[in-house]
Amino acid sequence: MNAQSTTEVIRPWTQRRPCCDTSETCIQVQGLSVHYQGQQALGDVSLSIPRGCITAIVGPSGCGKSTFLNCLNRMTDMIPGCTVSGNVRLMGQDIMQNGTDLISLRRRVGMIFQKPNPFPLSIRKNLTFALKHHGMKRRSDRDEAARNALCQVGLWEEVKDRLDAPAQDLSGGQQQRLCLARALVLKPQVLLLDEPSSSLDPVASGVVEDLISQLRGEYTQVIVTHNLAQARRIADHVAVFWTRHGSGQLIEAGPISQVFDDPQHELTATYISGLRG
Amino acid sequence: MFRSPGDRLLLGSLRCVSVLAGAVVLLIVVFLLIESWPALRSVGPMRFLTDPSWHPAASDGGGGRFNLIPMLIGTLASTLGAVMLATPVGIASALFCRFYAPRRIATGYRRLLELLTGTPSVVFGLWGLQVLAPLICQWRPPGQSLLAGVLILTMMILPTVALLSESSLNSVPRAYLRGAAALGLSRWAAIRSVVLPAARGGIITAVLLATGRAIGETMAVLMVAGNVVRVPQSVFDPVRTLTANIALELGYAMDIHRSALFVSGLVLMVILTALIGVTEWIGGDRLDA
């Protein structure tokens, strides 16, 4: 066990990655624009997000990264005065249409926030109550699903004896993993991660990062991050956003090695070399 | 710890003010005890519960009769009725304001509730006397009744429940709502499973404060409840509350009668103290969310 985890640590990141299936597009974004109170926040973004991969969204503050992420599960609907135009297809299905069932969309597209936000309920209830609302009638089924999700995020051993304790007694890193489990328990296809480790200490941040890496292949993940090193460590693809003419725009996107080693755009080159942004 | 002269001055004056505030409450209790002592001593506490009636001024033979039970029941029944009506309506108002109403309507509604909180109780009483009691009288005479008292009290404590509940709902972090929405929960499911449990402590405090207000309310109830000293058999019967009893009789009460009225005051204090105790007890273990 011990030896195994040691080799785990020293193995280079390139070999540790489970492969992702780049041949299929999971989310296809076409001409996406977002306005807040008439003010353009995101202009004409087109991006295809491959299935099973980790796509990092990077760029300086205020360039529309989080706004972009919020469009993918229509959380933008909750922001007063926010209008979205353009086309977002999830596995071929247009999710921007008026009749879209938001409840089932958000079950398919889970979201993790920058600051861990476990509900002020017990650990168990944090995981099970959404299942209950979504119609999982039997308590034993819900408990089983909760257990699986906790195992998936490596939290089961840490909390199995205190499932009925308040979730807010957990440490920051544990809370964030609980939030991840809370999303996973609904068996989503896509995970949207909005700077999931930026509010955590370096060790907890590393744990969450490894977890995201391990979920590659099984889930399509889109992660907003300020941390270029993190993007480089875990992402397969990267999209660089930048503020131009007062609104956020996508300036370059592609496989991680291509964008980082051979950036096509001048701003990308200065940004990743740490000169700007 | 380092303390500058300014700090010391502030600390000193704060201590003085706190002692003063505490002393006032203590003095009130002591005063009530002293004033009610003659009645408690010569009549005895039990007779306030077991006497056949309330005739405190009667001078035939064995002196007055001091049964407080009808008034106690009047106070508890009108308070309980008002709280049971105002709690669901108040929480519903708060939820409407916080989560469903368009901003402009919510603001207007909130102003209206604030105005209602500040309305003098005698104005409620006038309205109840002129409008509410005759309405009830048309349905079931005499009109001035427990029901009228309950309805007036409901209107008076409703804004307290609504405004305090709303401020408790407001203190629930938005992150919970976003988190719940991201899990595909409907607005109502999020409110029921996350927001209300998180705001529970504040809402319970709101209800208990409103209960305190209902127990202590005198004027409005006095004007609409009929004030007959009798245990009500239905909501259409007139009742007299402990507070109304004091206000009605203090003007002419003498000796033991006067002292007996202070016993009513003491009973009110005991009820309120118990209520505050319950508030502390429930509010103490609320989740800090």
Largest sheet of chain A: 6 strands, mixed
Which CATH top level class of chain B fits? Mainly Alpha
Note poorly predicted spans of chain B.
none
Largest protein interface, residues of each chain: A-B, 27 and 20 residues
Strand content of chain A: 25-35%
In total, the number of strands of chain A is 10
Helix content of chain A: 25-40%
| Class per helix and strand makeup of chain B | mainly alpha
Our count of domains of chain B comes out at 1
Strand order across the biggest sheet of chain B? Answer: 1-2
Low-pLDDT stretches of chain A are 1-16
Rg from Cα of chain A: 19 Å
Strand and helix order of chain B:
HHEEHHHHHHHHH
CATH-level-2 architecture of chain B: Orthogonal Bundle
Q: What is the total number of structural domains of chain A? A: 1
CATH superfamily of chain B: MetI-like
Q: What is the end-to-end distance of chain A?
A: 42 Å
The largest sheet of chain B is: 2 strands, antiparallel
Order of helices and strands of chain A: HHEEEHEEHEHHHHEHEHEEHH
Strand content of chain B: under 5%
Quick overview:
The complex is a heterodimer of chains A (277) and B (289). With 277 residues, chain A is an alpha/beta fold.
Explained architecture:
The complex is a heterodimer of chains A (277) and B (289). Chain A has a single domain (25-272), classed as P-loop containing nucleotide triphosphate hydrolases (Rossmann fold). Chain A is built from 12 helices and 10 strands. Chain A is α/β, with parallel strands linked by helices. A 6-stranded mixed β-sheet of chain A has the order 6-7-8-3-9-10, with helices on both faces. A 4-stranded antiparallel β-sheet of chain A has the order 2-1-4-5, covered by helices on one side. Chain A has helices spanning 2-10, 13-16, 65-72, 102-108, 123-133, 139-152, 156-159, 172-184, 202-214, 228-234, 256-261, 266-272, and strands spanning 25-36, 39-50, 54-58, 82-90, 93-94, 109-112, 190-194, 220-224, 237-244, 247-255. The longest helix of chain A has 14 residues, at 139-152. Chain B has a two-stranded antiparallel ribbon. Chain B contains 11 helices and 2 strands; from the N terminus they run H-H-E-E-H-H-H-H-H-H-H-H-H. Chain B has one domain: Orthogonal Bundle (MetI-like fold). In chain B, helix 6 (146-170) crosses helix 8, helix 7 runs antiparallel to helix 8 (187-216) and helix 8 runs antiparallel to helix 11 (255-284). The model of chain B has no long low-confidence stretch (mean pLDDT 89). Chain B has 289 residues and is mainly α. Chains A and B meet through helix 4, helix 5 and helix 8 of A and helix 7 and helix 8 of B.
